[in-house]
């Protein structure tokens, strides 16, 4: 059973509609505020029921504008988080890994070793694949763990598992064990 694919514009369209409603509501608030000020200038008293209703409507509209602006900001943040999750799910984990590697300033050799660690190879197999001594691989792995501020292979791998399970924080934003 094939799922209907949602248009990528749905979230953007929703944000645009919400922004339009905020603008419309702000214009209505300005109208009521202006009208209430004009009525107050003419009457000079605030005890007029018509003036009090207009003032209350203006305050409600201003409160609504503020609330909708907060909601729009939250919507845009959630859309960004969802996009990051989709990028990871669609095979862009490489970009996430590269962001970590760049933050940690890994050398090209360390990057190769780190990728093989993530693939589950042990030091001897990495040495065999790279045609280097296993001591060299151990030294590179130790450097990777130090730069990533992890205690070893399991904790290093868990960084990337956490990234896959994260609610949308990017490697560059979160980088919990990145270089200082």
UniProtKB/TrEMBL annotation:
Gene3D superfamilies: Winged helix-like DNA-binding domain superfamily/Winged helix DNA-binding domain. GO terms for molecular function: DNA binding. Keywords: Membrane, Transmembrane, Transmembrane helix. Residues 103-160 form the HTH luxR-type domain. InterPro entries: Sig_transdc_resp-reg_C-effctor, Tscrpt_reg_LuxR_C, WH-like_DNA-bd_sf. This is HTH luxR-type domain-containing protein. One of its GO terms (biological process) is regulation of DNA-templated transcription. The chain crosses the membrane at residues 52-70.
């Amino acid at each position: 059973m094939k799922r209907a694919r949602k248009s990528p514009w749905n979230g953007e369209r929703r944000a645009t509609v919400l922004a339009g409603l905020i603008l419309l509501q702000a214009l209505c608030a300005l109208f009521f505020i202006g009208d209430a000020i004009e009525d107050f200038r003419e009457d000079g008293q605030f005890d007029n029921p018509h003036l009090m209703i207009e003032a209350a409507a203006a305050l409600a509209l201003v409160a609504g504008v503020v609330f909708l602006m907060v909601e729009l900001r939250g919507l845009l943040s959630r859309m960004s988080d969802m996009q990051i999750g989709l990028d990871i799910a669609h095979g862009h984990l490489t970009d996430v890994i590269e962001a970590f590697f760049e933050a940690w300033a890994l050398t090209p050799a360390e990057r190769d070793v780190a990728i093989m660690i993530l693939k589950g190879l042990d030091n001897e197999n990495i040495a065999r694949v790279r045609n280097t001594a296993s001591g060299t691989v151990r030294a590179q792995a130790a450097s990777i763990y130090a730069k990533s501020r992890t205690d070893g292979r399991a904790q290093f791998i868990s960084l990337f598992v956490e990234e896959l399970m994260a609610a949308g924080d990017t490697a560059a934003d979160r980088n919990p064990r990145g270089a200082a």
